[in-house]
Every structure is written in C-alpha cells, then in structure tokens.
C-alpha cells in the first residue's frame, strides 16, 4: 500500500541541517539532486524538508503543487507530508505551497530565485540533463526580493518592455533587460544567470547583457538573439504589472475549533476574532486560524485525538473549499510548542513554557526556565549582539548628551542642571554621542509631549532633519512617545528622568498650580529608573511600585508592599531631585489621614502581585518597502540575513518592542516618507492589537547601532564598502560572452575596445603584443579565457 511505501522511504531520511527535496514520480518520493534545487517542473508535486542550523534545529516541511500536476500526485504528496511529519515526531510546521503563490519562508530557501520548468518528470523530463549544453530555452524573470523565472515560448512574442528575459543556449546565457525594468531587478537576474552557470553548467557558460532600450550598443549579442528568435516584427508588449504581494496584515482574524462528528463530517465552530490571546487554545483540541482568506493555519493541541491531528492538513484544504477561498490559499499546520513565528505574531501576547514574567527585572539568554534576578551587565551586549538588540542598549550610557527644547519653533539649548526633566507641554531633541570602533556614533531622540501643540510637533520633526543633516545623516533617529521611553533613554539620564504630565520647562513661564502632584517611580538602579506624573488620585496607586506625593505642605514617599529594597532606594533618590523638603515615609496599609485627603479620599487601586508586564517573545520580521514597481508595496522576507537589506530600498524590521526603518543609500525620498507612514499604519492595523506608541527608529545604511545589528546573525560592519554593483558586474561579464562565438582568441581580442582589453588583461594592447607567449597565456588564464 502507499502507506507502507511511504514508511520505507522515510526510513532513509535523516534530520540533518539544510535542505532536502523530493519529487513525486509514479506516486513515489524520488530525491532531487542538489544542483537542481530551485528548479520545479510545473506538472509535478514536490516535498521540501528544511532543518535550521540553530541549536533548536527547527524543522519545516513544505509540499509544492505545480499548476499542471494531477490530483493523484497532489493526494500522494499530502499523504507523504503527513507521514514525514509523524516520522519526525510531529514537531515540524507543515506548509502547502502553490506555484506562483509560495510563502516568503519557502522563497527564502532559494535566494537566487525559483525556476518553473515546463512539463514534468513523468513525461520523460529529468532534473539534471546529461548534456547540459544542448539547451535552448527562454526564461521570463520577475521580482526583486523573491525572484521567479518561468520557462516561456522561445519567441519574441513572449517578451515585454517591463521585465527581464534570459535566453539560455547552454554555453551562453543572454540577459535582455526590458527598458522599463529597474536596477535591482537587473542585478537579481544577473545573480540568477550566474547561479544557473555555476550550479548547472559547472561554471562553463558565458553570460552577456543587453539593455533593451539600447540594443544597438550590443550588436554581436543581438545578432545571436536574432539567429535564435528570428527578426523581430512589430512592437513588444507593454509591461505586465507585478502581482501585489499579500500584506498578510488582514485585521480581521477568526479562530475556529474543529472536531469530527460520527458521520465523518467536520464540525467547525467560531471561537474568537482578533486580537487573539494564547489562553483561547486548549491542548485537547485542534484549531483553524483564518487570516481573512489570505492564509489558513491549523494548530494541533498535544492532547488532541490521533485522528484529528493526522487529518489536519486535509481539514485545512477542506475548510478552504467550504469557504470558497482561492485554491492557492496558503496553509500552515503546526503542533503545540512548535508554532511558527508568523502564528505567534497574530496573538496579542505569547508566553513560552518556562518563561518568567517581568520587564527590566530580569533578562534571559536563550530559553532558560530559571532566570536569575541579576543587574543587567552592559558588557554582555558586546559579547552577545542579540542580547543588545533585545535589551535595546547600544552602549553603557556613558556618552555625551545635548538637549534642546522647541521654543517659538526654534531649538533652545536646555541647561544641563535640568537634564532629565521633560514636560508634557514641550517637545525636545536629545542628541547622544558615543564611540564604537574608534568612530563617533549618534542617536537623535525626538521626545514629543502629549500636550505640545501641532506646530511644536512639526517643528520638532523639522529641526531633527536639520540636526541630522548637520551630522551628514549619521544619527539613528528614534521617535519617543511620552511615557514609553526606551531602555537606553532611561539609562543616559542616570536615574534623573522625570516626566511631568503637563506644563513647560521654559524659564520664566509660571505653570498653573496643580495642587497635589503624584509621581510613580519605577526602577531598581540608575540605568532603568524614571518617575512619571500620574493623576493625583488614590486609584493611580499600585502595590508593586514606589510613589511620591507632593503637596504644598508635605512630601510623602509611599512604598507599595510589592516593591524591593532597590526600588525604595531609587524612589528616595528621585524624591530628592523633586523636592529638598524632608520626606515622610508611608508604608502601604499604614497611611496617615493627610495622605488620603491630599489624594481626594480612599479608592480601590491595583493590588495584584504581578511582576510588571509580560514581554512577548516574538520573532523579528523584516519587510521590504519599495515603489520600484510603480506603486508602494511591503513584501516580507523570511529567514532574513544582512544580504536582504537592499541599498535601493527602505526595510522595516519589526522586533515587537520596536520598529526599525533601515534607509538604503539609494532609497528614494518617496519610499523614505511612505515607509514611515506605513510603519504607523502597520502598527494600527496589526491583527494582534499592537501598541500604536511602539517606538519607530530610523537607521541609515552604514550607521547601524547594535540594537539593530543584533537581530542579524553574523553582521558584517564592512559589508557596504565591498560588493559589486549591477553596472560593475555587467561590464565584467560583457566582454566574456562574445568569446565563444569567435573561432580564435586573436579575433576575439580584436573585437574588444582598447578600454575593455585593458580591463580584461590588466595592460594595454601594445604592451600585451610585446610579452613572451608564456606570459600572454598567463594573463589569458587570469582573465578566465582558458
């Protein structure tokens, strides 16, 4: 039976890091050789197993459905996937992929692009040709971040003005760039052509590039194209708009519970709509999470019945049919404890097993059940970049601070004696300067008071641009929302940070008398302490914190039962900054009558013994923000690396606690402006009901702080100085290709211009002729002509 065959195949599968691919041929799983990875026959189905290199060795299984594959093959692939999942212990996440609509994660395995080939293995086609040079095909290339190339009819009628086409002739690959294609698309197509050359032709094929708008500049290459495609008659087709990548940001998300009834039918019951919380998921059940029809996810509880767990994939496909969703809707299936990052991102909070709660009290490295209550050591940041990023600390906060307040829409320097005092009626710019690798780095914080006028907020943004220009665009810009100051912002003020609800810090201005003022003090040492003014009512108190109540007659220091000795010490220090008067210590439960009178009488307040706020361990996500296709789009990049940061674009990195906008050196003004608006919109429409006050930090290429680079594995600080541009790559390739159409080397050398000759051989034509034969051969070898 098919099940037995599946078990025989599975016995030979090893769980080793990397990619393993099988195609379904005659209902059997047949391994695809590594040099053919990334090539997919449209008439076949494939199974892809990916095991990550990380210590957790997380595992993903995808099954890919070609557009012309048979129902039988699709059914066989689904059975094999379910068996493979079972064989690997039920922990992998399973994905259903449909040709042309693959998930970002799937595409991330094939960084140079996917190639869709006509036909299928069943019709006598093979993945690796025996004579790889006996080829004639035309590939239609689309995309910048996720590249796909589809085999199309070898004819001028397949071309259009906006895309890129590779004419693959085995020994030669000619890249024809549509006049309306952009630089990034051209570069990606060159990389794909090189990948075909290196992986499928053993490096023995030449590549040439024709600019479609300047064909007369490449007469030899055009001659060759015409010899294959014939003379072109009539005009080429207009460009085809790129598919809009799904934003996966559908605000309406529904969670359904499903179970079997006796008749073998599926019972689906709606449980909740977004924002979802983790406690909705019960281990004894299975659930379907519907992302507005853009994708469907199935979650299998650990204690659910075997039947419910094993039929999860088929249930998801059945659900899509019942809902009349398109057949290419994405499907993910996962088990409790092995949830995908995307799944967790749809929940307002997500707590891993063994995770302790607490923000600023503890930090954990990796997933350790026991967390020591330790003072945060900034030296660890340099040893562990990811920790620097998670804690959002760029250094030990010992750098230099300058503070300006917006007054009459201009910058007015603030007296250092009042550093750390921020008034809700004002806007401030704080420039922090520090050294890293003997180079000055800058962070520009924009603090906007809740009660500042719109003119002041606008002036604050305008003055930030002026300051940024003064330092040649080097500062990292951080928008700080009042009351949500990031960790590093607290640290640079060394325990002196006091946030006043209203009023202004301008000298000579008398603020209205608010009567009694109440301040909540949070923090255990000078690196994480701030005092925030709260409404002067009893309901503002919290048993976990220290509060300072200042009246005309008295200053009370109130200690909640849940606060520690360190917090009391920091409370005293802040109280001394706010008032030189003697402080009256008040213990919770032993308050004098005057204390309650000042607060307008007793009232219920927060008394639960919680450890502050739970931090959700959400995986970071990277998006490309680009208008290169003519309209502004955000495209997600899965399993991202530093290489995914495109110089031509703006990238959005969402670390949950913070949003980064990375500005590439060649990004255009429209993208930069639009990405900021999109970041705000992204937070507003996020299905998990995100905090709209989440900090948005702007980072320039080449000036990335460790809070950004720490999210990338093995960040290379020197990367941007190296690497070939598209133009450099093209000129390097250009003069090689024609070589194979010249019967002798000497004829080829004559074809080259003087500049091309010198570029290729490293000396002038005349000097080359004077060299002995052996030396000429040496130079030819170096140039790759032997």
Automatic annotation (TrEMBL):
Keyword Transit peptide among UniProt keywords? no
PROSITE patterns listed in its UniProt record:
HP (PS51089)
Superkingdom = Eukaryota
Subcellular locations according to the entry? Cytoplasm, Cytoskeleton
The molecular function terms in GO held by this entry are: actin filament binding; phosphatidylinositol-4,5-bisphosphate binding
Q: Which family does it belong to?
A: Belongs to the villin/gelsolin family.
Could you tell me what this protein is called?
Villin-like
């Amino acid at each position: 039976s098919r099940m037995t065959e599946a078990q025989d195949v599975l016995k030979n599968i090893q769980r080793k890091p990397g990619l393993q691919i099988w195609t379904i041929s005659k209902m059997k799983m047949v391994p695809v050789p590594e040099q053919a990875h990334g090539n997919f026959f449209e008439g076949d189905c494939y199974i892809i197993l990916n095991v990550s290199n990380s210590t957790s060795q997380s595992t993903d299984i995808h099954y890919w459905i070609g557009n012309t594959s048979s129902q039988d093959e699709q059914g066989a692939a689904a059975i094999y996937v379910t068996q493979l999942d079972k064989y690997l212990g039920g922990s992998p996440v399973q994905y259903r992929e449909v040709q042309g609509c693959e998930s970002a994660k799937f595409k991330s395995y094939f960084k140079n692009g996917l190639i869709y080939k006509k036909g299928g293995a069943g019709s006598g086609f093979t993945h690796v040709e025996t004579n790889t040079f006996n080829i004639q095909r035309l590939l239609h290339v689309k995309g910048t971040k996720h590249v796909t190339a589809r085999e199309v009819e070898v004819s001028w009628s397949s071309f259009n003005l906006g895309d890129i086409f590779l004419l693959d002739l085995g020994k030669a690959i000619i890249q024809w760039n549509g006049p309306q294609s952009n630089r990034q698309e051209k570069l990606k197509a060159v990389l794909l052509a090189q990948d075909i050359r290196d992986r499928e032709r053993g490096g023995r094929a030449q590549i040439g590039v024709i600019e479609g708008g300047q064909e007369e500049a490449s007469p030899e290459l055009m001659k060759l194209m015409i010899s294959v495609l014939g003379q072109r008659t009539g005009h080429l087709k207009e460009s085809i708009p790129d598919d809009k990548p799904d934003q996966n940001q559908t605000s309406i998300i529904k969670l359904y519970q499903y179970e079997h009834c006796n008749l073998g039918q599926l019972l689906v019951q709606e449980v909740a709509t977004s924002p979802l919380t983790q406690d909705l998921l019960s281990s004894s059940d299975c659930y379907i999470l519907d992302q507005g029809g853009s994708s469907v996810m199935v979650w299998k509880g650990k204690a659910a019945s075997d039947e419910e767990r094993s039929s999860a994939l088929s249930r998801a496909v059945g659900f899509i049919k019942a809902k009349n969703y398109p057949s290419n809707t994405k499907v993910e299936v996962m088990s409790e404890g092995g949830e995908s990052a995307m799944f967790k991102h749809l929940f307002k909070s997500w707590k891993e097993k063994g995770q302790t709660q607490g923000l600023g009290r503890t930090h954990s490295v990796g997933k350790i059940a026991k967390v020591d209550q330790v003072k945060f050591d900034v030296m660890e940041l340099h040893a562990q970049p990811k920790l620097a990023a998670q804690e959002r600390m760029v250094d030990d906060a010992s750098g230099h601070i300058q503070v300006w307040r917006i007054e009459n829409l201009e910058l007015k320097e603030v007296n250092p004696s009042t550093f750390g005092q921020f008034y809700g009626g004002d806007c401030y710019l704080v420039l922090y300067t520090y050294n890293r690798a003997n180079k000055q780095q800058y962070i520009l914080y924009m603090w906007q008071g809740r009660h500042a006028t719109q003119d002041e907020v606008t002036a604050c943004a305008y003055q930030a641009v002026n300051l940024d220009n003064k330092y040649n665009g080097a500062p990292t810009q951080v928008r700080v929302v009042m009351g949500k100051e990031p960790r590093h912002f607290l640290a640079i003020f060394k325990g002196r940070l006091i946030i006043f609800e209203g009023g202004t810090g301008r000298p000579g201005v008398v603020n209205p008398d608010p009567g009694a003022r109440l301040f909540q003090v949070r923090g255990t040492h000078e690196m994480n302490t701030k005092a925030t003014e709260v409404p002067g009512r009893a309901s503002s108190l919290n048993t976990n914190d220290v509060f300072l109540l200042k009246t005309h007659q008295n200053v009370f220091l109130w200690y909640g039962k849940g606060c520690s000795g360190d917090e009391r010490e920091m409370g005293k220090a802040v109280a001394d900054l706010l008032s030189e008067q003697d402080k009256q210590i008040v213990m919770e439960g032993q308050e004098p009558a005057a204390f309650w009178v000042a607060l307008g009488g007793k009232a219920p307040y927060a008394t639960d013994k919680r450890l502050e706020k739970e931090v959700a361990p959400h995986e970071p996500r990277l998006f490309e923000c680009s208008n290169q296709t003519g309209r502004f789009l955000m495209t997600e990049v899965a399993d991202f690396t530093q290489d995914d940061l495109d110089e031509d674009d703006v990238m959005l990195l969402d670390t949950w606690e913070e949003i980064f906008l990375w500005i590439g050196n060649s990004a255009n003004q429209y993208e930069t402006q639009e990405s900021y608006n999109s970041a705000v919109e992204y937070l507003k429409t996020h299905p998990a009901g995100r905090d709209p006050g989440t900090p948005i930090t702007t980072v320039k290429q080449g000036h990335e702080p460790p809070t950004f680079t720490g999210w990338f594995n093995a960040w290379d600080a020197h990367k941007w100085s190296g690497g070939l541009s598209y133009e450099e790559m093209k000129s390097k390739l250009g003069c090689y290709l024609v070589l194979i159409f010249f019967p002798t080397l000497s004829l080829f050398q004559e074809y080259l211009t003087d500049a091309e000759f010198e570029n290729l051989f490293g000396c002038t034509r005349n000097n080359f002729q004077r060299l002995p034969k052996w030396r000429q051969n040496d130079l030819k070898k170096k140039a790759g002509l032997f």
